[in-house]
């Protein structure tokens, strides 16, 4: 199984005015986030990672040239990184022919969290944390009593039997990947270049069976704002 890591963004809500650095270069526990990803992947037995890059792409390539994790690294460039991240997901479409994990690069997490996704018996799977704030910032998941996820969005349309915050990682089978690839392409062709890929994932789950694994009790955080970075460093001070 390969990992596809979306690392093309600027992170303008996080960085100080005039600070030039890829978002995935922020330091958590004294290490760059991009390096932590590779450490976690290696710990979990993932041997191949593809980074979809855009902003300061060459700096990311140069830094990872010295990587010693043992994970095979490749790059795909998204020149339109200022638009929606749907374009970054679609840029990696040729890799959807085998099972993969689609990962947002701006998440700090332990190997145990990623392992829960990899070891899941569900071939199409998301990670759900029931301990969440019901605001309009984070991506929420809504699932039925049987564990099927039906909705992913920033504000759920209804109350679900199970609901919580999504971590930002999606394990996808080759069969579901083929549908996902087609839906991404159709959405972009219809003028959806500014959308988030989760909006297409929200449509995909109506056609493909997607379940979830709980991650309650495991430390993790998405890093969008300075306070998120402070939280990440508090959680992973010794990573």
How would you describe the overall organization of this protein?
By secondary structure, the chain is an alpha/beta fold. It has a single domain, classed as Spore Coat Polysaccharide Biosynthesis Protein SpsA, Chain A. 28% of the residues lie in helices and 25% in strands. It has helices at 33-43, 57-64, 86-91, 111-118, 174-189, 197-204, 226-235; strands at residues 2-7, 27-28, 31-32, 48-53, 72-77, 100-104, 107-108, 125-129, 140-143, 149-153, 162-172, 211-214, 221-222. Strands 1, 4, 5, 6, 8, 9, 10, 11 and 12 form a 9-stranded mixed β-sheet that branches. A hairpin with a 5-residue loop joins strand 9 (140-143) and strand 10 (149-153). The longest helix has 16 residues, at 174-189. The chain is globular. The model has no long low-confidence stretch (mean pLDDT 94).
What are the key terms here?
alpha/beta; 7 helices; 28% helix; 239 residues
């Amino acid at each position: 199984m390969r990992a596809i890591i979306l690392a093309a963004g600027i992170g303008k809500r996080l960085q100080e005015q005039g600070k030039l650095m890829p978002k995935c270069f922020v330091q958590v526990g004294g290490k760059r986030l991009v390096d932590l990803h590779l450490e976690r992947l290696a710990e979990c037995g993932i041997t191949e990672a593809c980074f979809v890059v855009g902003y300061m792409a060459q700096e990311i390539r140069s830094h990872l040239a010295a990587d010693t994790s043992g994970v095979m690294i490749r790059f795909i460039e998204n020149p339109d990184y200022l638009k929606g991240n749907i374009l970054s997901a679609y840029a990696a479409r040729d890799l959807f022919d085998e099972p993969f994990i689609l990962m947002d690069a701006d998440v700090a997490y332990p190997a145990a969290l990623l392992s829960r996704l990899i070891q899941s018996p569900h071939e199409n799977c998301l990670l759900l944390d029931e301990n969440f704030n019901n605001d309009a910032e984070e991506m929420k998941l809504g699932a039925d009593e049987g564990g099927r996820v039906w909705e992913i969005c920033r504000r759920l349309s209804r109350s679900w039997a199970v609901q919580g915050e999504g971590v930002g990682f999606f394990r996808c089978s080759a069969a579901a990947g083929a549908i996902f690839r087609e839906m991404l392409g159709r959405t972009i062709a219809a003028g959806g270049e500014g959308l988030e890929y989760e909006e297409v994932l929200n449509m995909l789950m109506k056609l493909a069976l997607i379940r979830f694994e709980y991650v309650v009790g495991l430390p993790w955080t998405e890093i969008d704002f300075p306070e998120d970075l402070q939280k990440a460093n508090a959680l992973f001070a010794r990573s």
